[in-house]
Amino acid sequence: MGDSAGNPAAKPALIGLWRVLHVWSAQKTRLVAPLALIAILSAIALNTAIALRQSHEQRYALSQQRAVESAKRDLDELQNALLDEHEQLYTVIGTRPFYRRAAYIYPLPALIDNANAAQRTCEGRERCIALLDELKDMIRHLGALSNRLAMLSMLKPGSVTMDTPSLGELDARFFQTMQKIGEIRMDEDAHLDQSVTRASRDSQMASALLLGSGLAAACLLLAFLRRNARITKSLRKALQAADVNRKKYKRLFQLNPLPIWIVDDASMRLVAVNDMAAKALGYRASEMLELRLGDLRMNKTALHGAPFAHARGHDDGTAIWEHRTKSGELRSMNVFQLQTDFDGRTATLCVMEDVTTQLAAQAELRHRAEYDALTGLTNRKYFDERVNRELQQASRAGKTLAMIFLDLDNFKEVNDSLGHRIGDALLAQIARRIERVVGERGTVARYGGDEFMVIADGAAPLLEPLLDSLLAAMTEPIQVAGHELFIEASIGISLYPADGDDADALVRNADAAMYLAKQNGRNQYQFYRPELSEAATSRLRISTRLRQAFRNGALTVLYQPQFDMATGTMIGAEALLRWTDAELGSVSPAVFIPVAEETGLIRGIGEWVLREACREAARWNRDPARPIRVSVNVSPLQFEHGDLMGQVREALRDSGLPPALLELEVTEGALMRTPDLAARTLAGLREMGVRVAIDDFGTGYSSLGYLKRFRVDRLKIDREFVREIGQDTETEAITLAVIAVAKALNFELIAEGVETSGHRDFLLQNGCTHAQGFLYSHAVSAGAIADIAANAAARPAPLPV
Ligand code: C2E
Ligand code: MG
Ligand code: MG
After folding, report:
1. 774: Cβ below 6 Å to ligand 1?
2. Which residue, of 317, 383, 529, 737, is most buried by count of CB atoms within 10 Å of its CB?
3. Closest Cα partner for 109 from 148, 76, 147, 72?
4. Which ligand is nearest to the CA of 755?
5. Any atom of ligand 1 within 6 Å of the Cβ of 769
6. Does some domain include residue 4?
């Protein structure tokens, strides 16, 4: 590598290569190019190292060749010298008599020099040195033997013969020495062969590696070049597309109907703003580019949804933010934000939708669904939900809660005498008072007409002062539209968990306790007590459940037809309330009507029955040729409090029923409770053309005086008398007297409770032709009345007497 890097020609090539890689790496992964460069440079370094090693190997092989050749030459010389010397010795010892030598000394130093010269060429090779050392020893031996034999033969010629053992030994050593020389030569040859083979093998390997890495580098370069060409091509294409994109950008960004801007993440400055964004916030686009996001977004957090992080790496997503317009108005925008690159910086693209009106409408709808329109208090449905949530929390925290049921004592009178508008204003003021008293101590709801509910902490030291304040707040006079009104409240309380563990049970028991407060003289509070007497509990239950049934629209009205027994025609029908309760089953009006009267609930229920009956009767009477009258029972309370005349007028007007087809049934007792008021009301009703009947006639006062005073249209003979017909002659005599009175005073007459043909015959024979009873029909649904009327009219002959 050092060679290549140092080479001035390699430098531009490397730079070029780096550039190619750089362009490529800009498009692709940044790591690949440096790695490829490292790979190429490593290949070059490896090749260089191999080449160096190869030349070293070759040089070494060459020097070895030279050394071996010189050694071999030295050995040749040595061998020749040894041969000569051996011959010389034989000459000396006279084995060849034709040749004699005067003196003989073995030329040991010259031979050892010869061997040393050969040994010098063995530098670094142990084996060669060792072999030559052995050879030198052998020569020394040979020299010593030769000198001894030569000496012997010169001193005593002929003493050394071919049989002399020393001569045999000398020959043997001489051959050994010759063999050693041969061995050394072969060894040298082997060594030379080895170094030449290694040098040539290294050379082959280096060539192969050079070729391989060269090929790899070439392929890599080729690939880079091709890639580069492709990138250039796509860049050219991108340039062409840029023009099209500029137009698209204009359409997508600048002219987009949604406000869009781009915020630089680091500085939070607006770096691009479209026309609609500027328009939405009342700025010019150029003005907006001077702003930071914080100048537009007043709050630090979104109203809903994902946060807008002010740093890199935030989540993309949608959130609703409030933005201030140039004029200071607040607009809620649903912002979709996306992290992007803008001019090489990290930025956030925000696409917005103005949802101010939408949010306001949603809030309004939510408010309407959860709050009472008149008082602004939580409504019943939402209250129940909140209560159940609070109960769960209380259960976890082991807390006591109090359900406070507050019912106004005389609201109905105010409403009836001063009208609904005053009533509504009063309720709104009462609501404010309750809210003021309760404050943070609980949640207040309007539960029904004049019923309010509070859920508060049930701990006695907190609860009792609250209840006292509530009662006190109610008793203060209230000014409404110039009237000074006095309102009192009855309050019932049930406690969680002692008196119930869900909203339903707590409300029911608080209602029962409230009823107790009313029973005990009103304007007070009572806690629910499970030990209340059976009867009271049952009445409480009836009143509580009846109230709920009425509120939930679970009451129905059936109609019992009234007949002319002489002709068989249906002349009218009496509206009778029916109530089937999920817990109590079917409850008789004889049971629940007195309870409804005690609680005052009958006023609301009575008004509702009146309207229902008029509405249904108007439908039966579409054919004026066959009029069917409807009789509606009216409770004494409806007479005493409230605007009965007004209610009747409204019911007739709304239904379109002719007044002559409506009859109100009142009991004698009802009339006698407030005779003056009753007389005035009856007179007024009759003036309107509405008929009046005295119900259950004969069971009450039955004084002819009051009958004269209260001008009525019809008497209803009580079913107790009718039941005794054919059984008890005394009762029959009373019935006859009633019939006589009616006739004398010119009242119409109808008998109720006609169950048998015996009843019918007796009544017909004694001049009472109209009847109602199970003999003819039980009470039926409004829809069935028209059918019964049609069937009865179709009958050719009067019913048999
Ligand atoms: P009422 O006004 O005297 O109604 C007649 C009662 O006699 C009804 O009882 C009716 O079902 C029952 N009846 C009819 N025919 C026969 C029969 O042949 N035999 C016998 N044993 N009974 C018969 P109901 O419906 O139980 O009503 C009882 C009372 O409840 C009514 O007596 C009425 O005073 C009161 N009531 C019913 N509906 C209303 C209402 O809408 N308002 C008021 N204020 N009171 C109502
Ligand atoms: Mg009746
Ligand atoms: Mg009756």
Report:
1. yes
2. 383
3. 147
4. 1
5. no
6. no
Q: Identify the CA nearest to 467 among candidates 525, 409, 519, 512.
A: 525
667 in ligand 1 pocket by Cβ < 6 Å?
Answer: no
Neighbours of 530 (CB within 10 A): 8
Question: For all residues of the chain together, what is the average pLDDT?
Answer: 82
Q: Which of 559, 633, 640, 778 to mutate to test the pocket of ligand 1 (most atoms within 8 A of CB)?
A: 633
- 728 Cα: distance to centroid of ligand 1 (angstroms): 23
Nearest CA to ligand 1 atom 25: 576
CA 706 from centroid of its chain's CA atoms:
74
Place of tokens 């806690």: 527
- Check pocket membership of 560 for ligand 1, CB cut-off 6 A: yes
Instruction: Give the pLDDT score at 534.
Output: 57
Q: How far apart are CA 670 and CA 195, in angstroms?
A: 144
Name the DSSP class of 439.
G
Q: Is the pTM of this model over 0.85?
A: no
Instruction: Decide: 751 in ligand 1 pocket, CB within 6 A.
Output: no
The CB-side HSE value for 624 (13 A sphere, CA atoms) comes to: 4
Q: Across the beta sheet with 451-457, what order do the strands follow?
A: 442-446, 451-457, 401-408, 489-496, 525-527
Contacts of 287 (CB under 8 A, 6+ apart): 278, 326
The protein residue with its alpha carbon nearest to ligand 1, atom 35, reads 589
Greater model confidence, 388 or 239: 388
User: Is 278 touching ligand 1 by the criterion CB < 6 Å?
Assistant: no
In a domain, residue 366? The reply is no
Ligand 1 close to Cβ of residue 577 (< 6 A):
yes
Residues 518 and 562 in one domain: no
Number of structural domains found in the chain: 4
Taking CA atoms only, the protein residue closest to ligand 1 atom 21 is: 753
Specify whether 469 is located in the same domain as 608: no
Amino acid at 586: S
Ligand 1 pocket, mutate which of 592, 593, 699, 780 (most atoms under 8 A from CB): 593
d(CA 696, CA 668): 8
178-227 confidence digits (pLDDT tens): 878 888 888 888 887 887 777 777 667 766 776 776 677 667 767 766 77
Report which DSSP code applies to 164. Answer: -
- How would you label 138-152 residue by residue, b for 16+ Cβ within 10 Å and e otherwise? bbebbbebbeebbeb
Does the CB atom of residue 589 touch ligand 1 within 6 A? yes
Query: DSSP letters along 498-519, please?
Result: TT-SSHHHHHHHHHHHHHHHHH
Would residue 536 count as lying in a domain?
Answer: no
pLDDT digits (tens, 9 = 90+) for 125-155: 888 888 889 889 988 988 888 888 888 877 7
Among 286, 307, 491, 503, smallest CA distance to 408 is for 491
Domain end marker among 528, 553, 577: 528
Asked whether the beta carbons of 89 and 52 are under 8 A apart, the reply is no
CA dist 798 and 801 (Å) reads: 8
Instruction: For residue 669, report the distance from its CA to the centre of ligand 3, in Å.
Output: 12
Show Cβ contacts of residue 423 under 8 Å, excluding neighbours closer than 6 positions. 411, 414, 415
Nearest alpha carbon to residue 487 among 422, 549, 569: 422
The domain in which residue 522 lies consists of: 371-528
Which sign, positive or negative, has the C-alpha torsion 226, 227, 232, 237?
A: positive
What are the angstrom distances between the C-alpha of 695 and each of 41, 468, 637? Answer: 121, 45, 15
Using the 3D structure, point to which of 321, 341, 361 is the last residue of a domain.
Answer: 361
Residue 719 beta carbon below 6 angstroms from any ligand 1 atom: yes
Burial tier of 346 (Cβ tally within 10 Å: 0-12, 13-18, 19+): middle
